[in-house]
Amino acid sequence: MLEKVAWMNMLFDFYGVLLTERQKDYMDLYYCQNLSLAEIAVEFNVTRQAVYDTLKRAEHVLSQYEEKLGLVTKSTAERNKLTAAAAILEECENMENGGSVQQARKIIEEVLEM
To answer: Residues 49, 51, 15, CA angle at the centre, nearest 5°?
Structure first.
């Protein structure tokens, strides 16, 4: 469940502006502020089922955007490569190693080409 929450939060960060106001509100309250479906329903004076349906539609829309655009996947890959480059450069600080510097440069160039 935690993995789904983290994934939905990342999708919401990237594509949330493309949702309707109601979908944004429900996503924020459910995934970011950790309110239950019942609590959201009370706040908006709707049924729990209405909240659930709206959240499911919003999740589907966000997933479709990611499937077509892949911004979250690309961002994650970039972050991983930059983290690897930073670790290599840290190694180089501790010992003069030209091969590691070249490897770090290659990783950074790959990220810049994305």
So the answer is: 140
